[in-house]
Design brief:
250 residues, mainly alpha, 2 domains, two-stranded antiparallel sheet, 12 helices, 2 strands, 56% helix
Amino acid sequence: SSTRQPRRRPWSREELVHGRNIALGLATDSSSQSSYSSHLNSYISFCTLHNFPLDPTPDTLSFFVVFMSYHIEPRSVGTYLSGICDRLEVYFPEVRMNRNSYLVKKTLTGMKKLRSKPIRRKLPLSRSHLLLAESSLSPTSSYDDVLFVSMLETGMCGLLRLGELSLPDNRNLWDLRKLTKRASVAFEEGGYSFWLPHHKADKLAGGATTMAEDGAPPHAIQAAGRWASDTFQIYIRKNPFILNAMLTSR
């Protein structure tokens, strides 16, 4: 027997386009939207300056890579390309395929070798840093000082990012859906917990390095950092701090 579908009013094309635009607008975080729009503006300015059409062909994108690599760090150009893809995909569905083309990838690789500056990594946050911060507190310390140290310890032990501990100065970039509510904080024996509604795993080689130095197995660090397995393995290979810590802790 056939199932009967409820009667639904057909939408006009304008309504469908409007609904889709709203969905696309909400698919990207406000902070990312701001960055992506800036990246797109750079691409539009480049095309206007050189009388190129906006169509992001492999040729045009590779020329953009060369041009921008002489004005900004080439490693950042890849981020620009991601923003351009996000903003233009609705109008040029093939933009991601073009961005991943052999020509664009090889051009970006070559410009990194030609123009990139040496990477200067900051040292990961360690227990000694936390102890130093704690020792600076006194019974007369201000609320802000105590809050800062609390954020340091919570962020390191929870493998959190700065964006999960604070709000941007620009109120337009606030996303209340990401806020941890005070009502979710629970004090337990030996610690406390809270509900993190939205997260990205720690990328700063702080708490994860400390866990590795303590001999924690990879699966324990993966669970604590809330990494997907593939992402976690890539991160371990690329981050020299964590890789070295895990090797020397065995």
